[in-house]
Amino acid sequence: MNSTNFHAYIDNKEQLVLIIKTETMHIFGGWTEGAFSPNMQSNKNGLLFSLTEKKSYKLTSPNKGAISYDKDNIIFGNS
């Protein structure tokens, strides 16, 4: 998978759950209301979670989004 086909899968998709598995076998992800679109920062509800740790995480700042997204990065948490 590269950045071009990655964007084809998630750009402008609503109610998307994103799950990532790292090279060190950690599995985590996030969900946010609304669509994933380039250069977005969600200002809606969201959820961050670790399947490896079996935990979910609350946002510390409710006015900031769960996920920020641009052409090169996805940032989880209050960014």
Structure write-up:
By secondary structure, the chain is mainly beta. It contains one helix and nine strands; from the N terminus they run αβββββββββ. The strands form three sheets. The chain has a four-stranded antiparallel beta sheet, with no helix packed on it. The chain has a three-stranded antiparallel beta sheet with strand order 5-8-9, with no helix packed on it. Strands 1-4 form a two-stranded antiparallel sheet.
Mean pLDDT: 78
Unreliable stretches: none
Calculate Rg over CA atoms: 12 Å
Strand order of the largest sheet: 2-3-6-7
Helix and strand sequence: HEEEEEEEEE
Structural class: mainly beta
Write the layout of secondary structure elements.
Elements: H1 3-10, E1 13-14, E2 17-21, E3 27-32, E4 35-36, E5 40-41, E6 46-50, E7 55-57, E8 67-69, E9 74-76
Antiparallel strand pairs: 1-4, 2-3, 3-6, 5-8, 6-7, 8-9
Tags for this model:
single chain; 79 residues; mainly beta; four-stranded antiparallel beta sheet; three-stranded antiparallel beta sheet; 9 strands; 10% helix
TL;DR?
The protein has 79 residues and is mainly beta. It is built from 1 helix and 9 strands; from the N terminus they run αβββββββββ. Strands 2-3-6-7 form a 4-stranded antiparallel beta sheet, with no helix packed on it. It has a 3-stranded antiparallel beta sheet with strand order 5-8-9, with no helix packed on it. A two-stranded antiparallel ribbon has the order 1-4.
